[in-house]
Specification:
alpha/beta, 13 strands, eight-stranded mixed sheet, Rossmann fold, 15% strand, 429 residues, globular, 28% helix, single chain, three-stranded antiparallel sheet
Length: 429
């Protein structure tokens, strides 16, 4: 099968790109009047500009959600179907579903998409065995993955991609990733997941803030993880690269429209804080679900003004803390007045979300005897272990460690992972 210049192969641990240097310019996709104004062009737009020609003659299954759009703001599935150039035989919906109607922890179930008539399979929580069965049932020959990630290990879309790739190992199925920018940039932060703490929010050892695009992650999975965990590699793995993205870029630098990757990720600022403030899911504080600013508003009924004052005194880079009061409409403390803070981003390039959240948690635990891990975990505190990738965060906090000591504890593994991932990176600083 002929590969075009915008594809990068990644079949092996030391995969060689099919092209080197800067990719040639491409025309804007048909109907994409806004494209000339965007500094960055996602992989989907690169393919659309070629009228999806690289997928012609194949039975295609698509793993996507509402973020799988071109700069025309139209679903890639709708565009492929309307083009007549691509035989889309199935869509595989991740958490929240293909059209995005599911809340956290939900999919949309198997159904026929009313717009296109294409069969949609609920793939939320699917493992490699389930994906193999879905591939067999749908008859796909090529699987396309196109979802906007937010750069955190516990955001489930990357693990849907991992299991989908594992399901393609040992088959003739081609796997194609339409790449997108990492909205929080290309640098690594935080602790590593270790054996014994794998879960649906972290299936394999990567950092809490991995600093890779989904295309780079796919290459990393294929080279580092699948050979050992799935007894092989995806034989035909291609990445359609993003045009114009650099590792130093945050989402605001791309000129692209923000499409909610999930119902509680309303803005790019939310995504910038999420790799850290998602840790509040594991506490008895509200992480802001049920408000208009989830993961930015953090609080609980037992907090007061002292928390905001103490956090402001820390003078953490890139953020300010405003005393705030809110009433969540659902999730923790629904219907109750919560005191706490809104985390305001004042210098996006200086924000280190995991360090910010660590200081927030340590300060709350120091000030308030009522601070605790969320109820219902078995054993109690297990959720913070799964989110951080080990029991170290929890045990250090219980022993009275400072936020600085907790952050310092993962510096060596952060550096080691940065070295490990380098052969699979596609974009420069």
């Amino acid at each position: 099968m002929r590969r075009r210049s915008f594809l990068v192969g990644a079949a092996g641990a030391a995969a060689t790109p099919l092209v080197t240097g800067a990719a040639p310019a491409v025309a804007a996709p048909s109907g994409t009047a806004a494209s000339p104004h965007h500094r960055v062009l996602p992989g989907a737009d690169v393919m659309a500009a070629e009228n999806w020609a690289d997928l012609a003659g194949q039975k295609v299954g698509v793993i996507t959600n509402p973020t799988g759009i071109t700069t025309a703001l139209t679903s890639i599935v709708d565009q492929m179907h309307a083009s007549g150039s691509v035989d889309v035989v199935a869509v595989f919906g991740p958490e929240h579903g293909f059209r995005g109607t599911g809340q956290a922890g939900d999919g949309e179930g198997d159904h026929v998409d009313p717009r296109t008539g294409i069969m949609v399979y609920d793939a939320y929580g699917a493992d490699a065995t389930k994906f193999r069965e879905l591939y067999r049932k749908s008859g796909v020959e090529t699987v396309v993955f196109d979802i906007q990630d937010v750069g955190a290990r516990f955001y489930t879309y990357i693990w849907t991609m991992y299991e989908a790739m594992a399901g393609a190992v040992g088959s003739d199925i081609r796997f194609v990733v339409f790449d997108r920018p990492n909205p929080v940039g290309g640098h690594v932060r935080g602790p590593m997941l270790v054996d014994g703490f794998q879960s649906g929010v972290g299936k394999q050892p990567i950092l809490q803030q991995h600093g890779m695009t989904v295309g780079e992650l796919a290459r990393f999975f294929n080279g580092e993880l699948l050979p050992e965990q799935a007894d092989g590699q995806v034989g035909q793995l291609d990445v359609v690269q993003v045009r114009g993205w650099r590792r130093s870029m945050l989402f605001a630098d791309t000129g692209l429209p923000w499409t909610l990757p999930s119902p509680n990720m309303p803005t790019a600022d939310t995504a910038l804080l999420y790799p850290g403030t998602c840790l509040f899911e594991a506490t008895n504080l509200s992480e802001g679900r049920g408000t208009t600013r989830p993961f930015e508003l953090i609080g609980a009924p037992y907090l007061d003004h002292r928390w905001a004052h103490a956090l402001e005194e820390l003078d953490l880079p890139g953020v300010r803390f405003r005393e705030a009061y809110f009433v969540p409409t659902f999730s923790k403390h629904a219907g109750e007045v919560c005191a706490g803070v809104q985390v305001h981003i004042v210098d996006p390039q200086r924000v280190e979300a995991i360090e910010v959240a660590t200081h927030m948690i340590v300060t709350a635990a120091t000030l308030y005897d009522e601070f605790d891990w969320r109820a219902g975990d078995d054993p109690h505190g297990r959720w913070i272990d799964l989110l951080t990738g080990s029991d170290r965060f929890r045990t250090m906090l219980a022993a009275g460690a400072s936020a600085e000591d907790i952050v310092a504890a993962w510096h060596d593994e952060q550096a080691a992972f940065d070295r490990q991932r380098r052969p699979y990176l596609l974009y420069r600083g």
